C-alpha cells in the first residue's frame, strides 16, 4: 500500500474510522517491526482526526515506557496502576475519560489535555502496552471511538 491515506474530510467520525481501519491494516500488514507499525498507526490516527496527542506506551521492566507518538513531548515512564494509562494496563481494559481532572490520580503530562481514551495492547493474553489518545477538548471521546479503536487494535493483532 502507498504511504498515503484516503479519508473523506466531510465524513462522520464513524465513517472516517471505517475508511481508516482497512488502510492501517494494509499499511502494517507484512511489516514485522513493532515500532514501525506503532509509529504509522499513531501518525494515521493523528492525521485523520487531528487528536492533540496519540501514542503508545510499551511495558518494559514493569513500567510503561514511552513509545512511538505524535504530538507534544510526553511523560516517559508510567507505573502500573498510575494515571489513566497505568490503570488501563492494570485492568486490561479500555478507559474513556471525559474530563481528565476528574480522574483520580491523573498524570498531567500536558496541562492542555482535557479528555482521554486509553486502550490496552494485548498479545497472548498479556498486556504489552497501551494506546493513549488525548484531546484538548472536554468530553471528546465516546463509544464510537472506543468501538472503532478496539476494532483497529484487533485487526492489527493487538487483542
Characteristics:
Beta-Lactamase; alpha+beta; 34% helix; 6 strands
Can you describe what's shown?
This protein is of the alpha+beta class and 159 residues long. It has a single domain (13-155), classed as GAF domain (Beta-Lactamase, 2-Layer Sandwich), CATH 3.30.450. 34% of the residues lie in helices and 26% in strands. The protein is built from 4 helices and 6 strands. The chain has helices at residues 13-28, 34-49, 83-91, 143-155, and strands at residues 53-60, 63-70, 77-79, 95-97, 115-123, 126-135. It has a 6-stranded antiparallel β-sheet, with helices on both faces. Strand 2 and strand 3 form a beta hairpin. Helix 1 (13-28) packs parallel to helix 4. The model has no long low-confidence stretch (mean pLDDT 94).
Amino acid at each position: 500500500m502507498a504511504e498515503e491515506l484516503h479519508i473523506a474530510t466531510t465524513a462522520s467520525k464513524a465513517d472516517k474510522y471505517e475508511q481508516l481501519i482497512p488502510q492501517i491494516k494494509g499499511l502494517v500488514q507484512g511489516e514485522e517491526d513493532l515500532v514501525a507499525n506503532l509509529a504509522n498507526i499513531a501518525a494515521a490516527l493523528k492525521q485523520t482526526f487531528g487528536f492533540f496527542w496519540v501514542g503508545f506506551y510499551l511495558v518494559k521492566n514493569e513500567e510503561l515506557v514511552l513509545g512511538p507518538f505524535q504530538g507534544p513531548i510526553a511523560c516517559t515512564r508510567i507505573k502500573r496502576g498510575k494515571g489513566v494509562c497505568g490503570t488501563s494496563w492494570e485492568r486490561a481494559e479500555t478507559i474513556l475519560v471525559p474530563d481528565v481532572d476528574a480522574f483520580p490520580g491523573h498524570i498531567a503530562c500536558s496541562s492542555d489535555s482535557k479528555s482521554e481514551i486509553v486502550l490496552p495492547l494485548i498479545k497472548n493474553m498479556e498486556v504489552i502496552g497501551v494506546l493513549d489518545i488525548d484531546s484538548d477538548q472536554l468530553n471528546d471521546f465516546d463509544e464510537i471511538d472506543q468501538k472503532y479503536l478496539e476494532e483497529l487494535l484487533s485487526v492489527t493483532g493487538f487483542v
